[in-house]
Specification:
Elements (H helix, E strand, L loop, with lengths): L6 H8 L2 H28 L3 H5 L6 H10 L4 H10 L11 H11 L1 E6 L6 H7 L4 H8 L16 E6 L5 E7 L4 E8 L2 E8 L3 E10 L4 H7 L4 H11 L14 E11 L2 E15 L2 E9 L5 E4 L19 E4 L19 E4 L5 E3 L4 E8 L5 E7 L3 E11 L8 E2 L4 E5 L9 E8 L2 E3 L17 H29 L1
Antiparallel strand pairs: 1-2, 2-3, 3-4, 4-5, 6-7, 7-8, 8-9, 9-10, 11-12, 12-19, 13-18, 14-15, 14-17, 15-16, 16-18, 16-19, 19-20
Length: about 475
């Protein structure tokens, strides 16, 4: 019985074996391609392509795309952003650049001399006119940079390529203005440091002159002048000083960073002149006004200084029957002559207004000052006038109005000084000078509270000195 074969069996029998091997191999290869190649492509595809693809405008589509993203791709997105090349990173901001330049910047300073201006100093340091203009436009507005004075200084904080970051204008040891660049403009700030003040005590007995005695006591010339000005209302230091006169002074020394900078103010002082006792205490009221008073509250100041020249010699007194040294005839000398070297400063003895500044016959160069309605003073034989002195100029007590000379009818350099009351000449050495008002009754308690410790401290030093002198003997 013949066996019937199925069509598949006949096909396999008739299909060559070699072809069969090729068919099986091709099938295996196709299978590998289908399963392996898509995964390799997916792993090789840059993950940042997903992050850089443009978002669709349809919110529903965006939500659908987000929902269909493979969560495993999120770490790849972060990794790509972290490993971007430097050329793709954002450049540093202007603020960061300024900070970097500020770190590399240095300070340099320059002393201001006579004739210097802000523009010339900026040019000398290599800055432009635009830099000068920008600093001048600093907020808040100020005129300090237009009023540079010799002895002041400027400090520049700038980079190597002359980018000005900050400027300091030093007015004094403790005061300066700073200009800082903010967003291309400059902002001004005002700074005032405080001195460290220490109290010192000095005393001396006068043998020849106040200046020599003060030098032996360790007082500076400035403190000596202050001492003379405080008691200058009652004591003529050119005429009244006698050997044996004494003074005791309580004053401040001012320090910065542990170093003495200068002497401060006299806080309290006592002067013995011709066995007359004078005590002065410094008091500052609620408005910040400072002055010197007696222990009972009377002002040491009067409306006039006793002498217009410090430490000069009286060469000729007030004398209505004096014989004139040049005219050789009796001619009233209605003032006092102070002999001093040419160029010695002459001060106004009171507040007032200049009513004459010019030549006046035998007086030579003259300044006449009107003090209110009642008083006037005259200063003659001047070598030259003080700065800005002219007719109509208002002046303060102690202001320099001229310098001693020998203009007009004069045998040598000296000052001729006259004092008039309602137009009548008075002897400047003996005329009774009016006082200013004492401490107001409403301020008396505050005055006593502030000055009593000074009076106690002055007395303590005086007693200690007396005990030391007694121990020596």
């Amino acid at each position: 019985m013949t066996e019937t074969k199925s069509p598949k069996t006949r096909l396999l029998e008739n299909f060559p074996f070699t072809h069969l091997q090729w068919a099986i191999g091709l099938g295996i290869a196709l299978t590998l391609i289908v399963f392996l190649v898509p995964n390799e492509l997916a792993s090789q595809e840059p993950s940042h392509i997903v992050a850089l693809s443009p978002p669709t405008s349809d919110p529903h589509s965006r939500a659908q795309e987000t929902a269909t993203l493979d969560p495993t791709q999120k770490p790849a997105i972060l990794s790509a952003s972290q490993t971007q090349s430097p050329s793709l990173q954002a450049p540093p901001t202007q603020e960061k650049q300024d900070q970097q330049k500020s770190i590399a910047a240095t300070w340099s300073s320059v002393k201001i001399k006579s004739g210097d201006s802000l523009s010339t100093l900026f040019m000398a340091k290599g800055f432009t006119a635009q830099d000068t203009h920008r600093v001048m436009q600093a907020k808040p507005k100020s005129k300090t940079l237009t009023r540079l004075s010799p002895g002041q200084s400027l400090e520049f904080h700038a980079t190597a390529d002359k980018q000005l970051i900050a400027l300091k204008h030093h007015i004094s040891d403790i005061e300066f203005y700073q200009y800082d660049r903010v967003d291309g403009n400059y902002v001004q700030t005002h700074h005032v440091r405080k001195y460290d003040a220490k109290t010192r005590f000095s005393e001396a007995t006068i043998d020849q002159s106040l200046f020599l005695a003060a030098q032996k006591a360790g007082l500076s010339d400035l403190l000596t002048m202050d001492l003379a000005n405080i008691f200058g209302w009652d004591i003529d230091f050119a005429l009244d000083i006698r050997s044996g006169d004494r003074f005791e002074v309580l004053y401040e020394e001012l320090f910065l960073d542990g170093k003495k900078v200068k002497d401060g103010k006299i806080l309290a002082a006592h002067f013995t002149n011709h066995n007359r006792e004078y005590t002065a205490l410094r008091y500052t009221d609620a408005k910040g006004n400072s002055d010197y008073y007696t222990p009972d509250g009377r002002s040491m100041r009067k409306e006039f200084l006793r002498s217009p020249v410090g430490f000069a010699r009286v060469s000729s007194r007030f004398n209505l029957r004096r014989k004139h040294p040049i005219l050789h005839k009796i001619r009233a000398h209605k003032g006092v002559d102070y002999a001093a070297s040419r160029g010695t400063p002459v001060k106004s003895t009171g507040d007032g207004k200049v009513i004459w500044a010019g030549n006046k016959g035998g007086y030579g160069r003259v300044v006449i000052v009107q003090h209110g309605q009642k008083y006037s003073t005259l200063y003659a034989h001047l070598n030259k006038y003080g700065r800005g002195i002219r007719s109509g100029k208002k002046i303060k007590q102690g202001q320099v109005i001229g310098y001693i000379g020998s203009s007009g009818m004069a045998t040598g350099p000296h000052l001729h000084y006259e004092f008039r009351v309602n137009g009548v000449h008075k002897n400047p050495l003996t005329v009774k000078l009016p006082r200013v008002l004492p401490i107001a009754k409403t301020q008396k308690s505050a005055f006593e509270l502030a000055t009593h410790p000074l009076l106690q401290k002055l007395a303590l030093y005086q007693n200690a000195k007396t005990i030391a002198l007694l121990d020596e003997h």
